[in-house]
TrEMBL record:
Gene3D superfamilies: Crystallins (2.60.20.10). Belongs to the beta/gamma-crystallin family. One of its GO terms (molecular function) is structural constituent of eye lens. Residues 158-181 are annotated as: Disordered. GO terms for biological process: lens development in camera-type eye; visual perception. PANTHER family: BETA/GAMMA CRYSTALLIN, GAMMA-CRYSTALLIN N. SUPFAM superfamilies: gamma-Crystallin-like. It comes from the Eukaryota. This is Gamma-crystallin N. Monomer. InterPro entries: Beta/Gamma-Crystallin (IPR050252), Beta/gamma_crystallin (IPR001064), G_crystallin-like (IPR011024). Pfam families: Crystall. Keywords: Repeat.
């Protein structure tokens, strides 16, 4: 079973100033914890997180990994509005992810058994991904500095443990991939 844990600290001010909210698990509404929906900087102390610009895990998603984000431009947002967040499941020993060049799981295929910081270093020379097969609980794809939207692929496991998902082309640069079981 996927394990979801970590710590993220959200700050109202830029450069980690002002009021802060520390989160250790799913938080479906920042206002329920007495924190307004204005987030100008974030420190991810452990784990990987998916943050949403609206409460109840709705709206645009932002995938954040360990590190400091001193202003909202660093997580590719256009505003300081954020309403909910949750940790991304941590992968186990049986993780597997396949990416495909073509739609409907055709064309060049590359398999990942662990995190890969850059697709080019994993042998992917293409400029987009059109389909993903996820064996496990989910995958997070983060184009990061390339200006495209982050997205997360989640699955409820089928009896064979395989979930297929078709994605939109990511960017003109390969995205960063992390896959979780």
């Amino acid at each position: 079973m996927a394990q979801r844990s970590g710590k993220i600290t959200l700050y109202e001010g830029k450069h980690f100033t002002g009021r802060k909210l520390e989160v250790f698990g799913d938080c479906d509404n920042f206002q329920d914890r007495g924190f307004m929906n204005r987030v100008n900087s974030i420190r991810v102390e452990s784990g990987a997180w998916v943050c949403f610009d609206h409460p109840d895990f709705r709206g645009q998603q932002f995938i954040l990994e360990h590190g400091d984000y001193p202003d909202f431009f660093r997580w590719n947002s256009h505003s300081d509005h954020m309403g909910s967040c949750r940790p991304v499941g941590m992968h186990g020993e049986h993780f597997r992810l396949e990416i495909f060049e073509g739609c409907n799981f055709t064309g060049q295929c590359l398999e990942f058994l662990e995190d890969c910081p850059f697709l080019q270093s994993g042998g992917w020379a293409k400029n987009c991904i059109n389909a993903i097969k996820v064996y496990g609980d989910g995958a997070a794809c983060s184009p990061r500095s390339f200006g495209a939207e982050d997205f997360q692929v989640s699955s409820s496991l089928q009896s064979d443990g395989l979930e297929e998902a078709t994605t939109k082309p990511a960017t003109t640069q390969p995205p960063f991939l992390t896959a979780k079981l």
